[in-house]
Amino acid sequence: MESTTNLTAMSAPQDPPISALSDWMGAVMRYRSDHPSTQKILDTLERLLDRPYRTHALIRGEPGTGKEGLARALHAAMHPEGEAPFVKMPTGGRDPGILSLHLFGTADRPGAIERAEGGTLFLDEVATMSREVQARLSPALRGRFRRNDDEAPRKANLVVIGATDHDLSVLVREGNFRHDLFYRLARLDLRIPALRERSEDIPQAAVWVANRLLSRHGEERSLGIEGEADEGELVLTTAALTALGHHEFRGNFRELDLLMERALMLYREGDQVTETSVRRAIGKR
Hints:
Elements: H1 4-9, H2 16-29, H3 36-50, E1 57-60, H4 67-78, E2 86-90, H5 96-104, H6 112-115, E3 120-124, H7 131-137, E4 144-145, E5 154-155, E6 159-164, H8 168-173, H9 179-185, E7 188-191, H10 202-216, E8 223-225, E9 234-236, H11 238-245, H12 252-265, E10 272-273, H13 275-282
Parallel strand pairs: 1-6, 1-7, 2-3, 3-6, 8-9, 9-10
Antiparallel strand pairs: 4-5
Helix pairs in contact: 2-4, 10-12, 11-13, 12-13
């Protein structure tokens, strides 16, 4: 089995499943952290790569932590052949009737469950689904579901991955989320820690995000940390890293991406991203 360090360090692999894994690990974790939730996630991905099998999963984490990216990494690890569909269905705040139409479909209009046949259905914010929709969804995790115009159930073969920033175990105790659906989803129960919980990961995460941004904007040079940067690279100064480390990042990696784009593209001082660059990106003087 390939080591975790090798997995997280891959930059531009050609194989689609590994590319998805590398993208998530690079953007969200970058290197193995001492945080127990981080270790659990990377251990799970390693085991799936070593011995792929398909099972439902629950991903918990604050907005901006990369829940969809982790779902895609799990999908890639569970489907190493690389051809299985990945269907995303936002469920948060949607009318139950409309959500049922999109999820279960009709004979003339296949729903998300049918479109995900043989692959993965990713449900974004499962905590807000009505109990009526939960009751109809639960059998699909056991391999059967009804379309909206069906009289009899039909077979389903798919992995369902649910994501939420709520504590579903609390909602189960309060009677707001079905216990059967919860326990079927939580075969894999993974929590992505907030960025502020692991500030030691910020330097490498900032560099990874910055280099992705530079590539996206057509810049040929990359960014390195002061004292470690190669000749000709842009430099992220030590003082800039200190300023990033003191920021709370309530928006997690989504906010880190935004701040690094501002610091790089608007407020870079020559070849350096400085403390002033970061402070101006945050909105401070």
